[in-house]
Amino acid sequence: MSVKQSSRFVSLMLILTLVFGTFCGTAAFAASSTTVTIYHTNDIHGKVNSTYAEDGTLTQIGMDVLKNVKANTPNSLLIDAGDATQGVALATYSQGADIIKLMNAAGYDGMTLGNHEFDYGRDAALSNAKLAGFPVVAANAMDNGQTLLKGVNSAKTKGSGDLYDENGGWFIKTVAGKKIGFFGISTTETAYKTNPNNLKGVTFADEIATAKAQVSALQAQKADAIIGIMHVGIDGASKPTSHEIAQQVAGIDAIIDGHSHSTESTKVGNTVIQQTGTGAANLGKMVLSFDSSGNLTITASNLTPAEVGKQFQADATVTALYDRMAEALAPTLEQEVGFTDTSLYGGTYHGMNICRVGETNLGSLIADAMIYGGKELIAGQTQYENLPMVSLENGGGVRTTIPAGKITVGDVINVLPFGNSLSVKEVTPDKLYAALENGVKNEAKDGAFTSAEGSFPQVGGMRFTFDIAKPVGSRVTEIVLLDSNGKDTQKLNRNDTTTKLLLVSNDFEVAGGDGYTMLAGLPYVAEGSALDLVTADYIRQLTEQGGGSFTYALQKRIRMVNNGQIPANYETTIQVMDGSSPLGNATISVQVDGGKSVQAKTNSVGKILVKNLSSGGHNISVTYNGKYGDAFVSDVAQLTEGQANLAAVNSPAKQIKAVSDTTAPVSLPKNAAYTLKVTVPQGTTPHFSVGNGEVLGATIVRRSGNDYYYQIHAVGNPGEKTGVYCTFDGQAAQLLCYASVA
């Protein structure tokens, strides 16, 4: 039996929801109606803990709150539309398993696979699907001729009374006597929006054709409502979008969507489509109401964390589970790697991922860390040492901001959570132009991007100009190589197929991820350790060189023009906040991109106007009475207003110098040992550590007065390198030497 919808009523309810916020469905229907509530999330990217503002307002909806949302709503279900198991350190270190355990605790009823569920590889994705206490469905995910999830949900059927497709395509939950059918669709973009090497034969069938087949299967099971759980999204660059699926596939009552990080409650044809944004920023709510004749009406709304927090408390048992997981990981994540005087910007602001549309200082830092690591990888290879080296990091891989202050291992992992490793390939100028063309392919209109592709490049060792008004594929107008001081050295010819360059990137991109297929067939020169480890080592070096802290300004390596014209300068309004209150009528110091400090006075609501900013991103820093705050603005990212929240300046600990008998790199055969003599200042207590324990073991073997003899053991792989560090009475770590496996 096909389900009939009262489309006129659905349209009215959607309009009321969008205007007035949450719609209380149970009060709006006649007593003879049957109501089922579906709560849903998408693209939470490992953000599973509840967070609260200073006033106690919920700002991030954790699994502990979701547990009570479902438990205290009669006839309710909880669904996720993918990209749950990746994005923060807790996810990375458990390869997604801890996220699934918390979803089990919250009481999820089903999910589909997002592209980032595969970031730890095919086997980990399957392991997590089996670990889930709820069905995981992806009807179009294929593995060597059969569905990837075949048999995965079979053990979950026993005694449940629910129906499951043995092939992992659909499931039916019976709620209040109604059969609610769900089917899963994963985007075909997964083929290049995770590392292609992770898939190992996994392919993705056409979304529209698969959806048609799944609707037919659920209709054959006499489902009373058919819901697509889709990790597809509405980004204009995606083909198809969920809107196009709704238009072309009859019989879908609603789509719980994900992938494009959009916040949406709308109706396309007869299909309600909803998406909640990203990072547990909202909770989706669909109220399905069946009248006495079985006709279905649906209302849809996105609930903010504040709304959810007013109605539901956190479940203490789930909170305790998360706390135990976080505590077990804390010693690793809390290790300090450096100190930054200004924030390093990445991630999403007001719905826009800033590294996907323009240059940021954090994007440049990561690209520079790649060159730092790449040069170490080719050291001693004379055929490569004199070749120019450039780097490219996909903006979508820069996931969050590092605030000013101490930088920990956990901070770096949260920025770079994918576990990507460093790769060096030989490239020619024509391929480099093609790669950057892929990076700036975002859809554009009227001189601005209208889509934000993860492929947008953050670069090192070069600068480039692109014309946003030109057709995709011919936007990059110049690439210029830079020396180590950031000065121009050579303009590249886009038709040059012979000049050799070295490109350092991550293994995701060089394998063809994010559309960088032109890099997939290029010859490898070297492969290194994880990008987060390389970046952490680079931050350590910057901190040491800066005497305990460093500043990283925007490097101005990416220039956008429009029809050959440089966009006009712009101005920005920054509101300065002191705690929860605006800092009104105060004289403050202001810096733009770490430049000259100038005095400015805030108005009555704490705002200042900064004029004549060149097009692109800028860091605006303010100081007042020993407090510091900063903000990121960018006309390209449509962020022309910002807020700087003042906080007490947390100065880095002064470094105490230790004297060792070598600061030169030490190269050891595997399983060999080297004894390092370290003289420690009198009256201090040393603690020794290594930057990567998987590479080198470390033991204090002897002490004579203030001289410590520290034996390091090479237990890693050839070419891997780490630093030996010493901390004195909790003071900042001092680099003693670098060691590598020969």
Describe this structure in words.
With 742 residues, the chain is an alpha+beta fold. The protein folds into 4 domains: 7-325, Metallo-dependent phosphatases (Purple Acid Phosphatase, chain A, domain 2), CATH 3.60.21.10; 334-561, 5'-nucleotidase,  domain 2 (Alpha-Beta Complex); 570-648, Immunoglobulin-like (Sandwich), CATH 2.60.40.1120; 659-741, Sandwich (Immunoglobulin-like). It contains 15 helices and 49 strands. The strands form 12 sheets. Strands 34, 35, 36, 37, 38, 39, 40 and 41 form an 8-stranded mixed beta sheet that branches. Strands 9-10-11-13-14-16-15 form a 7-stranded mixed beta sheet, with helices on both faces. The chain has a 6-stranded mixed beta sheet with strand order 6-5-4-1-17-18. Helix 11 packs across helix 15 (531-545) and helix 12 crosses helix 15 (531-545). The chain is globular.
Question: Can you give me a brief rundown of this structure?
Answer:
The chain has 742 residues and is an alpha+beta fold. Helices cover 21% and strands 35% of the residues.
Quick tags:
742 residues; alpha+beta; Purple Acid Phosphatase, chain A, domain 2; 5'-nucleotidase,  domain 2; Immunoglobulin-like; 4 domains; eight-stranded mixed sheet; seven-stranded mixed sheet; 15 helices; 49 strands; globular; disordered N terminus
